[in-house]
Amino acid sequence: MPAPEPPPAAPALPRLAVVIDDVGQSLTVGRRLLALPGPVALAILPQLPHSQTLASEAAAAGKPVMLHLPMENMAGLSIGPGGLTTGMTEAEFRSQLQQSLNAFGPIQGVNNHMGSRLTADRQRMDWLMQVLAERQLFFVDSRTTAQTQAAFAAEAARVPHVSRDIFLDNVRSEAEIDHEFRQVLARARKQGAAVLIGHPYPETLAYLERRLPQLEAEGVQLVSVQVLLER
What we know:
single chain; alpha/beta; TIM Barrel; 9-stranded parallel β-sheet; about 35% helix; globular; Divergent polysaccharide deacetylase family protein; Divergent_DAC; Glyco_hydro/deAcase_b/a-brl
């Protein structure tokens, strides 16, 4: 008698990874982020008052910890301490990068803060990815320019990488945040996975505190960035 066929595997749920940028200025806000359900990643700026404390607490809570690395932008906006610019020599670039990577710990990956000029510079993206490869860190491209070379450089250096699908809160109103959240869920369902980046604004925090606990009931799985990298 033939063995019964195994039941068909349940289709995998669409997956959503959430990254919150610009963390480190406020301990209160950082701890609200840590209280969000699931493996929401904290992208922490170097050299801020609470960068190290929040990195330690995030790691203890099992949340992904990332360096939110300041990079030169097209608009000439100040990028803050620890940033990388196209005017740096290779030695200056690598030295500043190592300092920023050592600013707090532990970190598992990096994403760009601003960077519309620097991420479009293939040579400097190659320098960046060589260092990330040595340190076995992943990279999330915030995609602040359509001309970004980050994914190509990461691929060449064999650095695990993903790219941002949607910015949640370019407009800080509940209606717009809700619109962008629905967009990213639609993209996750279509592609199988999506990456959402938000910021520690009061409007964003209030929305995510309410919305993230409902995700599973809507058939979407909240996962860490690392889970998407393993696909």
